[in-house]
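Treating backbone geometry as a discrete language has practical consequences that deserve illustration. Part of our work consisted of pairing the sequence of a single chain with a tokenised description of its backbone. What the numbers capture is local backbone geometry rather than side-chain detail. For completeness, the protein is quoted in full, as a sequence line and a line of structure tokens:
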Amino acid sequence: GKSYLCKSVQFLDVGRTVTLEVVSLHVQPFEVKSRNFSEVSECAQDVPVTPTPIHNATTIPAFNTTAVTNTMVPISNATVQTTTHPPNTTNTTATTSMVPISNATTINPSNTTINPSNTTVVPTTTIMTTPKPPTPPPKPPKGHYNVKNAKGQVCLLADMGLQFKVNYTKTDKRKNTAVFNLPKTANCTGSCGTDHSNLTLMFYGDSFSVSFEFVKAVKGNGASHFHVSSLEISYTEVPSLFPGTTSPNARRRVSKTSPNMFSADVDKSYKCNANVTTAVTKDVTIVTSLVQLQPFGIKSGNFSSAEECSEDSSGNNTVPVIIGVVIAAVVVLVFVAYIVINKRKQGSNYRTLN
């Protein structure tokens, strides 16, 4: 029934590369009345610290000292310096108001005057570290994702590595490109239907997501196949991934219909090991690799036989083409050599007859 209030700055680690900075947070998710916040419950950072008395501490006695009235404040890791005066000074009673000192060294001589001006207060500084802008990440890791139906049976399987490239503007007006990968630990959600299925992968504390919509269609020869009907990407321009951005922590969403991705016969799975780049907008592209995917017709939780993408098929033909070119070159060389040798023999015979 209370609201949560925290005016202090808080840093929350979101994944391994993203840090979320929260300040002046006031929130109440439940039992809101009359559109106003309820009684406030402050965070620990906003609550003032009450000094704890030091037990078994030694109090400085006053012996033949000059009267001084001092109010001492809590000092962390400090040393109280004193100045010694001759014993023949005015004999009066010092009135001292003592406040506990944490982790302090107490000097206890006789005939002393506590001089506040000689007390050194050493401030405590807390250094906050922020993640450095990452270098371009390596090849995206291959993750395994699945969606289950209401009966708990796997109805969609996806193995893939995804890399995102996003152009943005820096504060110096220059263009830059943020590059980041889909982590293998991304949260997977989705649904399966007879003709429609979808897959959503969320990562970095749900600040980033990518969604694929799959549909069945009929080819010109009457055979059914599946493909991606729409693609949507949501991301946040966090400074750790978008260094120097003019719009820090701004949320973005881009989408594309019929992106010509992941197409195969409905009774098969789609497979493509090659890096395939798809432009979502002029500023956002997605690179897929090591993909095997099947949104329909999963049996016993396993992929059906794979239908390879054209990029893999063309790559597999490279070696045979090279071998064919080499063989053709050898044949040509042999033929040319045969003609040259034959002509030389004929020229030699003519000289002998003359």
In short: The CA atoms of residues 63 and 111 lie 5 Å apart. The two ends are 123 Å apart (CA to CA). The chain has a mean pLDDT of 77.
